[in-house]
Specification:
Largest sheet: none
Helix content: over 70%
Radius of gyration: 20 Å
Strand content: under 5%
Shape: globular
Order of helices and strands: HHHHHHHHHHHHH
Length: about 230
């Protein structure tokens, strides 16, 4: 519906949200945040997320956390963000588990707790959350607050890559490179660099410039050039 006519869809969502439909309230918050078919208004987005969250909508609760973490429509406050993430995580939302784990791992708004962060990444990964799969793989590869298990790390990287996470694709490519499987590594590197955000693209392309394989170096140079043009 949004693809056909964003403005018309936004109007329909607004009407449904005003009539009390919780899913529409959460969706209205998202399109207000993005400015999709409607004037962008982060403060109003925050209000609709709050309305939907009070009705038990878990993704709206998670998005409240995102708003408070990043200062969208409010003053940034990681402590408030953590409370919202924790509520949604405890109710079983994988995205909230991931977001709350990130705060626990980086000591933002909460006391650092790497063991709990690892547990949350694992729970989210087992629910199919691709970004959590990559971070679970990182903990297992490095033996961070858990026994190192490179085989398990490789498997989680692969699953993250196949799930579409560009960081997971990059991690899996690194494993394949170490194994000497450059052909497959190049394929995953291309996917990672093509799908990653600009900051990731800049950091990753620079890191790959030091690769020993000339094909990886050439790919890195190509993407570094693209970054410079953006």
């Amino acid at each position: 519906m949004l693809d056909e006519s964003p403005a018309r869809a936004a109007q329909a969502i607004l009407i449904a949200a005003r009539e009390g439909e919780t899913e529409a309230q959460a969706l209205l918050g998202q399109i207000l945040l993005d400015g999709l078919g409607i004037a962008q208004d982060q403060t109003l987005a925050l209000r609709w997320f709050d309305i939907a969250a009070r009705q038990g909508h878990l993704m709206a609760r998670n998005m409240l956390g995102r708003c408070h973490e990043h200062g969208w429509g409010c003053i940034a406050d990681a402590t408030v963000a953590a409370r919202h993430y924790r509520t949604a995580a405890e109710a079983g939302l994988d995205w909230a588990m991931y977001n709350y784990a990130n705060l626990l791992a980086t000591r933002r708004g909460v006391v650092e707790d790497l063991l709990q962060a690892l547990s949350l990444y694992r729970r989210a990964a087992e629910l199919g959350h691709a970004k959590s799969m990559n971070l679970l793989g990182r903990y297992l590869e490095e033996g961070r607050v858990c026994p190192a298990d490179r085989a398990a790390a490789r498997d989680w990287y692969r699953r993250s890559a196949e799930g579409g996470d560009f960081r997971g694709q990059f991690s899996y490519a690194a494993v394949l490179t170490d194994e000497g499987n450059i052909d497959d590594a190049l394929g995953w590197l291309h996917k990672a660099l093509a799908g990653g955000n600009l900051n990731f693209l800049r950091v990753a392309s620079q890191a790959l410039m030091g690769a020993t394989d000339p094909r990886i170096q050439a790919m890195a140079g190509d993407y570094a050039k693209r970054c410079a043009e953006l």
